[in-house]
């Protein structure tokens, strides 16, 4: 065996022990690199006589081709091994049963909001939606709740460090009542100058924000405000609306409703609304479900209407609390924890 055959065998052995492309390139450099063994042999041809150079050159070139062939074979072997490992890792056992895609569902509070909108829609109420970042004027002043009024202390909580074009502070709305103001002002402007204006019937469901957190409260919660304004709207109408709503919502006629005197700056007189079921686990227990009252004359003026001509009522209820009552949940925070074990119970 001559020296060239030994060189080819050495190259084949070095290439054969390379377990990665990087190791193979290092082995290649030892033979075919600028200072490689084959390259050095080619450089040595310059010192030979012309007749010897021709024969020796042919032998060295043949050796180089054999080394390159061994290199290419090892490259292909490494690529095949890598592909096989990848295919093995990604292989699928087609005999295994299929994995079904999970089916989602509406959040229980979303279900309640949809139900509220459907019921009030059947009574002729529009649904209004608006910004969650409101002006101080819309959130409080327009609702007969002036700056520094004690009634604002529990609601005047989340502010944005910014003012609107008129210099009024912005806040995360503590209730959806600003939508009553926006809707009523738009309605009044639309029918300005006309002798008779169609009644205003609107609900405003949406997210609201206050600094509050316990088993029955959350810093972010949902609220649904309602407004009915006309030339001859009374508490009798309010009671009729509430009775129809709650009996439809809870799918039972077996409940009682009462008004309990209260105070809200934007209504006068004002009343808390309580219901009591005549059967079931909550039988005989009065539950507060809404606040209501006749819209204060100052608020009617801020609507752009004449309080001597237009009268009506406003109300507000918590869809989160209604959801708790409907489904028998005793901790509001469960709705917002994102625990699928809890939420999956409400899929249908």
Write up what this structure looks like:
With 348 residues, the protein is of the alpha+beta class. Helices cover 41% and strands 21% of the residues. The chain has helices at residues 3-17, 21-32, 37-43, 50-89, 108-122, 136-139, 177-190, 235-249, 297-302, 319-327, 340-343; strands spanning 126-127, 133-135, 159-163, 169-172, 200-209, 220-230, 255-264, 267-277, 287-295, 311-317. A 7-stranded mixed sheet has the order 1-5-6-10-9-8-7, sandwiched between helices. Strands 2-4-3 form a 3-stranded antiparallel sheet. It is elongated. The chain starts with a helix and ends in a 5-residue tail after the last helix. The model has no long low-confidence stretch (mean pLDDT 88).
CATH architecture of the largest domain: 2-Layer Sandwich
- What is the typical, i.e. mean, pLDDT? 88
Q: Bin the helical content.
A: 40-55%
- pLDDT below 50 for ≥5 consecutive residues: which ranges? none
- Count helical runs: 11
- In total, the number of domains comes to 2
Q: Which strand order spans the largest sheet, edge to edge or round the barrel?
A: 1-5-6-10-9-8-7
CATH superfamily of the largest domain: Bira Bifunctional Protein, Domain 2
Over the alpha carbons, how many angstroms does the gyration radius reach? 40 Å
């Amino acid at each position: 065996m001559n020296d060239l055959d030994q060189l080819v065998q050495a190259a084949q052995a070095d290439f054969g022990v390379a377990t990665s492309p990087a190791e193979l390139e290092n082995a290649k450099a030892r033979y075919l690199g600028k200072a490689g063994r084959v390259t050095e042999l080619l450089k040595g041809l310059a010192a030979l006589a012309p007749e010897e150079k021709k024969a020796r050159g042919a032998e060295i070139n043949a050796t180089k081709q054999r080394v390159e062939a061994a290199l290419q074979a090892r490259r292909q072997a490494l690529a095949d091994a890598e592909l096989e490992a990848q295919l093995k890792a990604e292989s699928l056992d087609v005999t295994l049963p299929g994995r079904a895609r999970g089916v989602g569902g509406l959040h229980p509070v979303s279900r309640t909001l949809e139900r509220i909108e459907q019921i009030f829609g059947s009574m002729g109420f529009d649904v209004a939606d608006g910004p969650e970042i409101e002006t101080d004027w819309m959130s409080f002043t327009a609702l007969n709740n002036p700056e520094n009024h004690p009634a604002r202390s529990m609601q005047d909580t989340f502010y944005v460090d910014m003012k609107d074009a008129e210099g009024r502070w912005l806040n995360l709305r503590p209730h959806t009542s600003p939508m009553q103001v926006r809707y009523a002002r738009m309605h009044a402007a639309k029918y300005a100058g006309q002798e008779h204006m169609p009644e205003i019937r609107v609900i405003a469901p949406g997210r609201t924000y206050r600094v509050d957190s316990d088993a029955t409260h959350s810093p972010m919660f949902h609220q649904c405000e309602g407004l009915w304004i006309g030339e001859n709207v009374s508490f009798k109408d309010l009671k009729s609306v509430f009775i129809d709503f709650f009996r439809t919502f809870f799918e039972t006629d077996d409940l009682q409703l009462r008004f309990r005197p209260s105070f809200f700056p934007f209504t006068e007189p004002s009343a808390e609304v309580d219901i009591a079921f005549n059967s079931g686990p909550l039988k005989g227990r009065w539950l507060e479900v809404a606040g209501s009252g006749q819209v204060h004359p100052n608020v009617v003026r801020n609507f752009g209407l004449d309080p001597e001509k237009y009268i009506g009522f406003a109300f507000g209820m918590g869809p989160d609390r209604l959801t708790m009552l409907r489904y028998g949940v005793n901790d509001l925070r469960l709705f917002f924890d994102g625990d699928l074990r809890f939420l999956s119970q409400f899929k249908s």
